[in-house]
Amino acid sequence: MATKTYDAIVVGSGITGGWAAKELGEKGLQTLVLEAGRPIDPDTDYAEHVPEWEVKYRGMGDRKRADEDQRVQQTCDGMDEWNSKFFTNDKQNPYTTEPDKPFLWIRGRQVGGRSIIWGRQSYRWSDLDFEANLREGVGVDWPIRYQEIAPWYDHVEDFIGVSGQAEGLPHLPDGKFLPPMELNCAEVVVKDAIAKYFPGERLVTIGRTAILTQRHNGRAPCHYCGPCARGCITRSYFSSLNSTLPAALTTGKVTVRPHSVVHSLMFDSKTRKVSGVRIIDGQSRDAIEFRGRTVFLCASALESARILLNSATPEFPNGLANSSGELGHNLMDHCMGGGASGRIPGNEDYIALGNRPNGIYVPRFRNVKQKHPLFLRGYGFQGSASRPKWERGVEMRGFGANFKHALSRPGPWTCTFYGFGECLPNHDNFIAIDREKVDAWGIPVIRISCAWRENERALLKDMSISASEMLSAAGAKDIEPILQDNAPGLTIHEMGTARMGRDPKTSVLNGHNQAHDAKNLFVTDGACMASSSCVNPSLTYMALTARACDYAVDQMKRGEL
Amino acid sequence: MHRRQALRLLASAATLPLLSREAFSLFQAAHEQLSEQRVLKTLDPHQNATVTTIAEAIIPQTSTPGAKAARVNEFIDLILTEWYDEEEKSTFLTGLADVDSRTRELYGKNFVECGEKQQVEILQALDDEVAARTEDVRRRRNRPPEKNFFFMIKQLTLVGYYTSQIGFEQELHGEIIPSRHAGCVPLEEEASK
Predict the structure, then answer these.
(1) DSSP per position, A391-426
(2) Helix-then-strand count for chain B, H and E
(3) Is the pTM above the cut of 0.80?
(4) Residue A450 vs residues A24, A425, A431, A444: alpha-carbon distances, Å
(5) What integer pLDDT is reported at residue B36 of this predicted model?
(6) Best CA proximity match to A524, nearest among A1, A19, A3
(7) What sign for the dihedral angle of Cα A526, A529, A532, A533?
(8) A127 part of a folded domain
(9) Strands (E), A125-184
(10) Which end of chain A offers a freer environment for a tag, N or C, measured as fewer CB atoms within 10 Å?
């Protein structure tokens, strides 16, 4: 096989892999990006403008095929008839769970990874988040604080473009925002009422989203067609495919190799460093080895942990870089599913134009200024107001000309709040290698053991109550509380399986996402998280990745790696 | 110019609204080539006539075309053939046959042979039954019944109609690429866009 040694090998090409490729390439490193899935051609794969009448089942999805190939993926609301190809084939990529502990692992295997189908909501963490573990004696203390990551949030936002409204909240720091999208008629009603009834405590702001509202870094502003998760030919929302990977390739230093299913890492016990990556070629099924001076794992929280667990050596019998025994443990996902919806009277003669691919946000208000008696930490609400269209006719009485005429006008304004709560790190939520089963490439799969605990359940219940309260304050009618029992995983914010920490005895990575046990190994995806905050995590993963790349290159220059 | 090329232009255009209309007209041109009749795979001619008549009664031709013009019957046949499971298919087809049993008992003929007034009467009874069941399960905080013939055909008619090119463009005045985004404008403005 080729004996070329790359300066860096990046495993994964999604949100964090794209960032690692761009940063390392721009700093002059010969970089190889290994992606398990196929290449994506925006010209033929993106489908955001394909009308409903051009897909076979008119948007109802190919149900029988999905039942066969995507049993888990189809539980995700974001998967549809247009974009199911951006979701993993569950048959080829199995995993196991315990009978009473379902876990829904929603994945994307292609160049661009899940960044093609992500929700795009982008929020900064604050020290309320970074200090929480230390303050409460939960998990391990984060080795960093807001001050250390803030310049990297700036760096990432400058490049990807995040639209939003500055609110001056210390616990949800403002970013470098592009102009905000507009609230609609009913959202303004709800916002004003909440400002009046919960002053200084709760507020409604437009979602902070990685979608351009003006031209930015050569990418066009959003044209409000709506279904971002089917792709975007104008590259108006951030994905690695739309943004970081093209920038990485421009450097001339970066090679992206699709169909490269990583089996494990190679470890040199003399230097105590990682020496390269073993892959199975997804098409030829050949086993191939690549050598690298540094390795960045950006394969997603569960895949990166799986690769390390599958890379056991005599020194590390329980998985590479696992002297702490924490590798694979402390799995978290945001608990979602508490909320409420209700009808907002008024504005019957008004409507919003275009399909705004963004909602509203209520920043966390529990355990911010005063301690809540029933639970630790808190949650934020995402939501939106809208007027239902013809779909409401399915449950409406009637038929005939009058019925048709009624459906030609939109229904009443309805507002929904849906909560996303912080999940506490718990050693007993974990993944391990399932020795009984392999995937389509012969690689041992993971067994996931994860369940919500008392604190998450208390958060969910409170979401339902406080959302109803807010709608009631806004004069909503027919308020329906929401309290869903979603399995962990479905929020698609899984994280924590190779946590950062100050002490090598209790954490896998140090404050620079560098493995305590192998200094040329970095893990910068969601695996690195020591706690989960309640805000959407991808912006933080990107900032941590860029920061880790800067550190790694600096260390290489000093001859330390 | 291909559709994709038009959209590429969008990405670099300062005057998005103008070009979006051009791009949209390309979809229409592309779609006009797709209009050959589909061969039915599940519904026999009599079942098809009944389905077509019921769908048109739910969404009739008014100042805009109705379910028949949008070929909702073909969509329903596709769902029966490829999408429904055996139980759902059987619920639908049994319910469809039951419509004829009802009209034969009341009027001595099949549904499609009845006058419009008689047809409406039968469909009204079926719609009332769905509404009663919906009301009943609502009170039990459950989901509405989906395994009911009239619920099913009403749902498929609405999906088949409003997701057709006719329903989307002529009835809803939909735009794949909207001319602009605004949070709150008078309804008339939306209607005249």
Answers:
(1) GGGGGSS--SHHHHHHHHS----EEEEEEEE-----
(2) 9, 1
(3) yes
(4) 35, 11, 8, 19
(5) 56
(6) A19
(7) negative
(8) no
(9) 162-163, 177-178
(10) N
Q: Residue count of chain A, please give it.
A: 561
* A261-295 pLDDT, tens digit each: 999 999 999 999 999 999 999 999 999 999 999 99
Bridge partners of residue A255, in order along the sequence? A32
Indicate yes or no: CB of B11 within 8 angstroms of CB of A354. Answer: no
Alpha carbon distances (Å) from A1 to A274, A290, A295, A331, A443: 18, 9, 19, 37, 21
Expressed in angstroms, the distance from the first to the final Cα of chain B is: 25
Same domain? A278 vs A344: no
Q: What distances in angstroms separate CA A299 from CA A111, A303, A416, A555, one per listed residue?
A: 11, 5, 34, 23
CB pair distance less than 8 Å for A353 and B79: no
3-state secondary structure of B185: strand
User: Both A16 and A97 in a single domain?
Assistant: yes
Q: Examine the domain organization and report whether A413 and A524 are in the same domain.
A: no
Q: Take residue A546 and report the two structure tokens written for it.
A: 């860029």
Q: Which of A174, A180, A181, A179 is nearest to A124 (CA)?
A: A174
Mean pLDDT calculated for residue range A355-366: 98
Q: Residue A56 and residue B78: Cβ atoms within 8 Å?
A: yes
Rounded to an integer, the average pLDDT of A213-236 is: 97
What is the arrangement of strands in the sheet containing A414-421, beginning at the earlier edge strand?
A205-206, A360-362, A379-386, A414-421, A335-343, A477-483
Q: Domain map of chain B by residue range?
A: 3-34+174-191, 45-162
Interface residue B29 vs chain A (CB under 8 A): no
DSSP string, A307-375: HHHTT--SS-TTSTT-TTS-TT-S-B--EEEEEEEEE--S-TTEEEES--S--EEE---TTSSS--SS-
Looking at residue B62, what is its pLDDT?
98
Q: In chain A, positions 405-424, which contact chain B (CB-CB < 8 Å)?
A: 405, 407-410
The fraction of chain A above a pLDDT of 70, given in percent, is: 100
The CATH number assigned to the domain holding A309 equals: 3.50.50.60
Q: Can you tell me the mean pLDDT for A403-421?
A: 97
Q: Closest by alpha carbon to A282, among A92, A106, A70, A21?
A: A92
Q: Residue A222 sits in which domain range?
A: 162-226+335-421+453-483
Comparing CA positions, the residue from A512, A452, A436 lying closest to residue A104 is A452
Q: How far apart are CA A504 and CA A173, in angstroms?
A: 30
Is residue A207 in a domain? Answer: yes
- Interchain contact A181–B (C-beta under 8 A): yes
Closest alpha carbon within chain B to A396? B131
CB contact under 8 A, B11 and A233: yes
- Beta-strand ranges (E) seen in chain B are 182-186
Neighbours of B102 (CB within 10 A): 14
Q: Would the CB atoms of A353 and B78 count as touching at under 8 Å?
A: no
Q: Which one, of B87, B20, B115, lies nearest residue A353 by Cα?
A: B20
pLDDT at B15: 36
Average pLDDT over residues A357-374: 98
Average pLDDT over residues A493-498: 98
Locus of tokens 């099913």: B152
Q: Which residues of A touch B172 (CB under 8 A)?
A: 389-390, 408
Ramachandran angles phi, psi of B76, nearest 5°: -65, -40
Chain B residues with CB under 8 Å of A407 CB are 158, 162
